[in-house]
Amino acid sequence: MNTHRTLRSLLLAASLGLVALSAAHADGGRRLPRNVPQAYTQECAACHTGYAPGMLPARSWQRIMSGLDRHYGTDASLDAATVQQLTTWLVANAGTYKRVAEAPPEDRITRSAWFERKHDDIAPSVWRLASVKSAANCAACHTGADKGDYDDDNLQFPAGLDARSRRAWND
Q: How far apart are CA 125 and CA 140, in angstroms?
């Protein structure tokens, strides 16, 4: 009997550990979860950076996915099954940590308080460089953006950045 009770306790502890790890990962924010649906890579990341779901709260993802016909000025409509699959995944992995608990204006990651704080030293002219185009083009500077890696140690200067801006970047 003790063996069964011990085994049951170990299985329960392991299950709780996986649930806690999963929740902590969702709150990790910027990293992509391991279970990225193929449709996310094919449909979303084909047009822009495949943002980690933890960068926005669940309500933002729900609004974004329910308005794909007017997705920031573009018709990004998908079939209902794909919308449901991606919405479920995005909401399940959405940010819940205090830094993303509140939806940013227009549900834009680049308008969130944490994004603006992390990029407050970037001159507006950098966002307009031909190699960058906008703050939403994370891969212009973050070499691991396609994998959800935004570590400051892996930054590159965007093409066309002048010497003065390079010096300011390094300060």
A: 14
By CB atoms closer than 10 A (0-12, 13-18, 19+), residue 80 is: exposed
Q: Is residue 6 part of a domain?
A: no
Residue 33 CA to residue 95 CA, distance in Å, equals 12
In a shared domain, residues 77 and 144: no
Q: Give DSSP secondary structure letters for 2-64.
A: HHHHHHHHHHHHHHHHHHHHHHHHHHT-SSPPS---HHIIIIITTTS----GGGS-HHHHHHH
Could you read off the pLDDT of 80-97 as tens digits, one per residue?
999 999 999 999 999 887
Rounded distance between C-alpha atoms, residue 50 and residue 160, angstroms: 24
Q: What is the pTM (predicted TM-score) of this model?
A: 0.74
9 in a structural domain: no
User: What is the tally of structural domains in the chain?
Assistant: 2
The domain in which residue 75 lies consists of: 23-104
